[in-house]
Amino acid sequence: MRQLVIMAISLLLALPSISLAEVVGKLTQVEGRVELLKGGKLPATAVQVQDGVSPGDVLRTKSLSRAQITFLDNTTVTISPESRLAINEYLFDPGKGKRSAVLELFQGLAHLVVTQVFKVQEPDFQVKTHTAVMGVRGTDVGIRLNPNDTTFLDFHGLVRVANIFPEVGPAVDLKDMQGSVVGGGLPPTIPFTITEEDRQLFMRQLHEGPQTRTSFGGGVPPGPTANLPDAVSPAVTNLVNALANDLAITPRLAPPMVSPSPRPPRFIITGGSGGG
Amino acid sequence: MKISPKWLTPALILLGVLLASVPALGVTPYDDVLVQKAARDLQQENYDEALAELNEAWEKGSHTWEKAFMLGQTHRLRLNYPKAREYLEEALRLRPNLPQIQLMLADTLLALDKPKEALPLLQALEPTGFEPGQVALLRGMAEAKEGRFSLALDYFRRAEADPKVAQAAKFQASLALAALNRLPEARQAMEEAVSLNPQSQTADFAQRYAGLLERRWQETKPFRATVTTGFDFDSNVTLQPGGAAAAQVSGRGDVAFTETATLEYNFNAGKPFSVLTQYSFFQNFHPRLSHYDLMSQYAALIPTYSYQNGSVWLPFSYNYVNVDTDKYFTSYLVDPTWLHLLNEHLGIEFSTRFNRQYYWFPISLPQDNQSSKDVGGSAGAYYFFKNRTGFLQARFAYEHYFATGSNWDSSSYGLLLAALYPATQKLKFGAFLDLIYQPFDHRFFNGETVDNIAGNPFVLNDKREDKILIPGLQITYNLWKGLDFNVHYFFTRDNSNIALYNYTRHIVGCQLSYHY
């Protein structure tokens, strides 16, 4: 009897704290083994679609499992198999156009689609990783965690990335179809251009997971272009290609006053012009 | 660094053996329960639970290498490699020389970009014969991170013999080959890596890299060649760049067959300092107006300096032109150019131009001698889009011709607007508009006398003034690899106050070109 009373009191004490845990989003996709650590604490409980999430919660997916959270502001976060995501903070006041969200990705891949962008001085939607912090100004971003770095792929919108320690170096702004890698203790790399193929590759990884249990050893490189030797700046070489190969057709009946290949052709002046 | 089944399996077997021998190892029953529970949780991917159990066992029980090893592995699975390193080092301290710990620690250190610290572990593992493929792969990666790509390549080749790591080894070998600038081999190795397991994520990356390698190879290969053949209709066959008036604007149309061959060799290609050499041959044939047939040879030496966001070229070039088998024109040109990218999309270009040109055609009046020295310069800007495969361009150019004959002393002010739009990877649209204003310095003199009577005073003409408009359109389609098909249309309107040079011209045609 005494035990029952204690249990009842405990339950009553627990109820207010449960109701205080404000639901800030719902699971809109659950595939496979997806579990939630309420308040970031064990035990983990299996979740299903429409379950709510609150600040402090940690969501984890196991192999061959995926999940998507849709927050109150319609921001969606999709996480890959073998991921772990914490909702550190989430405040949203649609009336005042205010939002303050901080997520933390501990492992795996995440895809964010932030649909509402408010005019604020600092990014109001942040994602932290073990090496970096990213401020999202909208709207479509992929994040991939590697043991010693984080790759950010900005498919659309403006994103600011920096090392998790501000003193390490300046932040870098990413625009549409740009990426950056932030290594441990290093500032973000200068933005590199990403292609539709990179996006597709990321989406496939998001679906399949980072395969941490299936590819020991060589592993996969962190970014699409990060490991290629870079004797000549890709910027310049791309430029050379574009300029040398594309418009380089002189009017047919003129002698080919060939300009250096990196330059667009001088369309040679025929007829009365003096020297061509 | 990731864990594979072939690695996970021995690790779990090792854990199983450890757990079976727990009592013998002096682990307390309390530890035993927690560690066994942790092992089960690890298998079920309950990493949070496993970590909590192991931490408790570590804090409250004895510090054994087995627990340290499991803690290291758990932290790795949670992507906390710095913490994993701590526990794996502790495990190795408690149980020196155990190859499983050495290998996992070496891999962890490599993932943390600590190749110097990983190397002694790998060197110790090599003679043991433990997981030789895996060890060779990691050794290769350590050497590559240290910049010793040739040595790394040797290890990757060794690792390729082990089917368990063959794909990863091929992939890494390709990167090492690329670093050694052996791009064709790198490309081949990448293709082989894909073929080993096309469904894997490594294959996905390999495919992506293979494309980049192909592009890099195209950009940095020292030798290039282009051959082009074309067919045009020219509404008003005109010699360029001028000459005896009667020969210049025919006033008649004709078709023309054109052939071009260009050879290039770039010394030190792909490096910041390089020297590009070019030779180009051009010829056209007019079935009806064969005295307008033209043959041109061009050679250039172009020292180049490329840096992160731009390039500087210093081209020296020579051009020789025959018209209808007669020597017609030679020129020597120095054309320094600087191109700089301000950001991802915007580039600026400046150039100067010093040209000495000679016209060898017979002339009847000394005033008509078009040979000249000319100097000039240009300033332009580009706006790039679509990953720099397309651009908008605006360029202003000025030149002054110091000609031998007074009829040709002139200035030229030109504005070029151009655009290239890649609709797809294969289909490109190009357009340009060239506007030139060319005022001449002196009154035009053609030897004409009043009423065409010898001895009468010469007719005084105005100063010549040309306003030239040249728009053009072209569409290029890539048929196969380096084979392009192009259709184009160019229009020229020279509005000159001297009737001889006042003309209109349309050129429409197509061409087939092959780039190597």
CATH architecture of the largest domain in chain A: Sandwich
CATH topology of the largest domain in chain A: Jelly Rolls
- In total, how many domains does the architecture of chain A comprise? 2
Largest sheet of chain B: 16 strands, antiparallel
Based on CA atoms alone, the radius of gyration of chain B comes out at 36 Å
Assign the CATH class of the largest domain in chain B. Answer: Mainly Beta
Q: Figure out the total of helices of chain B.
A: 13
User: How do the helices and strands follow one another from N- to C-terminus of chain B?
Assistant: HHHHHHHHHHHHEHEEEEEEEEEEEEEEE
Describe the protein's architecture and organization.
The complex is a heterodimer of chains A (276) and B (516). Helices cover 16% and strands 36% of the residues of chain A. With 276 residues, chain A is of the alpha+beta class. Chain A folds into two domains: 21-228, Jelly Rolls (Sandwich), CATH 2.60.120; 232-276, no CATH class. Chain A has a 16-stranded mixed sheet that branches. In chain A, a hairpin with an 8-residue loop joins strand 13 and strand 14. By secondary structure, chain B is an alpha+beta fold. Chain B contains 13 helices and 16 strands. Chain B has helices spanning 5-20, 29-43, 47-60, 65-77, 81-94, 99-111, 115-125, 132-145, 149-160, 166-179, 183-196, 201-220, 245-248; strands at 223-234, 254-267, 273-285, 294-307, 310-313, 316-323, 326-334, 337-341, 346-359, 372-385, 390-403, 410-422, 427-443, 463-480, 483-496, 503-515. Mean pLDDT of chain B is 86; it is low at 1-7, 20-26 and 241-247. Chains A and B meet through helix 2 and helix 3 of A and helix 1, helix 3, helix 6, helix 8 and helix 10 of B.
